[in-house]
Each structure stands twice: as C-alpha cells, then as structure tokens.
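Hi,

I'm pasting everything inline rather than attaching a file, because the server keeps stripping attachments. The sequence lines come first, and each chain or strand is labelled.
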Amino acid sequence: MIRIFGDSISGNCQKVKWVVEQLDIPHEWVEVDILKGETRTDDFLAINPFGQVPVIQLDDGRTLAQSNAIISWLAEGSDLVPDDTFERAKMLEWMFWEQYSHETAIAVRRFQKLYQEKSDDEIDPQLIPKGRRALGRMEMALLGNDWIAGGETMTLADISLLAYTRLAHEGGFDVSEFPAVHGWIARCERELGLPHLHEVTDVQV
Amino acid sequence: MIRIFGDSISGNCQKVKWVVEQLDIPHEWVEVDILKGETRTDDFLAINPFGQVPVIQLDDGRTLAQSNAIISWLAEGSDLVPDDTFERAKMLEWMFWEQYSHETAIAVRRFQKLYQEKSDDEIDPQLIPKGRRALGRMEMALLGNDWIAGGETMTLADISLLAYTRLAHEGGFDVSEFPAVHGWIARCERELGLPHLHEVTDVQV
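And the predicted assembly:
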C-alpha cells in the first residue's frame, strides 16, 4: 500500500489525494503539519531530503517527491494521461508552467496571507500582477477549450492547475474576473466529485 | 523538420540544443534575443503566448513550450528516458525540482548579475542561500551516484540540471565547494561532447 505524506492545507498535496481517489488507488494518508515544522524533523528528512510534502513511500521503501512527478507516476496508463505522445507533452508543458509561473505567485501569496498572516504590505507586491498574468494565460487557453491542455478529457494538467487556482481567493485573487477559468474550476470539481468552492450560477458548467 | 526558437545564452534553451544534438534529431535553430525583447513581439507571442524561449514548432504548426516538456517529448523512447516507470518518475521528480528550487535561484541570479548587470546589493540576498541549498541537495544525491536520478545512465534529469549548474559561477556560486557536483558536471560534459567549463584535474571523472 502506498503511504502518502501530506498536509491537507497544501494544494500540492491535494493533487495527490484527488488522483488516488479518482483512480481508486489504495493508500494510507499520513498527515504532516508544515506549520508545526513536521517537514523539518530528522524522521521526515530521512523520507524526503527535500524537506517537502507531498512525498509518497512504496512498500519496498522507495520514495518519490514533487507533486507533479507523483501524480504522473500514479496516473500512468489511466485516462488522466493522454495516449498520444504530443498530447502528453502538452500536458507536461502546463504542469511545468504551473510549478514555475503559477504556484510561485498564487500559492506563495496564499501561504503568506493565510498561514503566515502577513499583511498586504509585507508581501512582495509583484505577486499580484504575476498571479494575474498566470490566470490570464489560463483564461486564454480555456476560451474554447474545456480542458487546459486542449484535449477532449481532463488530464493531470487540469488537476495540477486546479489545486491552487481553486484556492486563489485565499491569496487575494478574484477568479470571477476570469470567466473561462471560473467555469473550468466548476467543471473540474464536478469531474472529481469535489464541493463547489465558488458561486457557479453565472457560468456555463 | 522541427524549428527550435531559442536564445543561445539561456540554459533552458541549451537543454533543447543538447538533446537534439545527442539524439541526431534534424532541426532548425531560430535565434531569439531575449534582451532585445524578441520574445515580446506579436509574431513571437503568436507562436508562444507564454512569451518565453525555448519553444518548438512542428511542420504542422503545433507548438510546445517549457524546456523540460520539450526535451521529454524529443527524447521519448530514447536512452535518455528510463524504461522503468518508477525510474522515469524519479527523473521527472528532479526535473520539476529543477524548475522550482534550482532554476529560480541559480539561473535567476546569473541573469540579473550577468545580463541585467545588477550589483550584488541590488539582487535578492535570499538567492545565494537558496542556490547553495540546491547545490547541496545535488551533492547529497551525487555522493555515490554517477547520475542525478540514481540510475546507471545519463537521463533528461542530468541534462535539465546541467544547464544552469554548469553556469552557476556566472551567478556567483562556486561549484568547486560541491565536489560531487563538480565531477558530475565534467561527466555530463564528456557524455554530451561539450567543452569543460571548469577545471577538472582535482575530481574523479
């Protein structure tokens, strides 16, 4: 059985949770509290020297970190990963972009605001325009496409981007300014059986 | 024939160049000068709305961005990608880590220092400890392993991390403090037929 070490408040950890639940993969969830420093203990660093959650551990002791690498491995061969090699590469394109250009603004601002309880003045002012650019880029991709990587079905790219886009309001971003993104959040939530976090009456779902 | 839009000074673009050369993939290189704003023109944004290099374009017009997604697609089925699904996931783990925790310190500091000609005082002081932690993490992985993802042969994870690790001195980092990393750079360079950028007499290669 796969052990998942994760903090439930982390979008990166939620990605892993959604994939194992969507694919009915047997697993054990081990809660690790980032704010209490539980990713910095010797025991945890022995499992993941990167000192980050999520990380998974297999029965034979092998471990795998980085949310997008973990979900790639878990979903290999499933409907969440396109068969076509180019479509698969497009999926990865969005997943790498998520970690470089989206998570680094939207998730970082959420963490500082919500968990470190920083005031807006204490937060890097560049994070707002950077996050808005990321949401704008998604809006552009979702005008005319149901799913972010452009295919006919939900892929890991949607799951990866959903995690912090869905929580963007907690970082001070208003997703209702991006109607295609807004509708896509509800579409993903429906597909994954998640509660709707945002009002959805004004968008086509 | 694949068209590669890249700026030769960019490590992210060099990854793509190395992979097509290593695998003898026919290609055309189109030089795009970031510093002259050539990634912000209407013509370029039509090819890559992310406004970033590298991006590749296929004969049928389809495009693919994000260096690590591009090399994943180019190298699919080659010796640079492990057959084993878990080893492939470990390769991806390092590639996602590269974009999130390594490039964002080492490449960013290099760019600001070398190309934006910022003085050390003008650069975020956190980039030095962050970059040193990244190099330390690589050192830990390379003590006892020839290749970063732990397998018997060079993978895309090595190519991805080589790009900016090899140029780290241009960002003010001293790789000779990390002897296993130092030796690994020379090992990768030899495998890829690249000139040695660092003195290699004191390390085992």
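The helical segments of chain A are 11-22, 42-47, 67-75, 85-115, 127-142, 156-165, 179-192.

If the labels don't parse on your end, tell me and I'll reformat.
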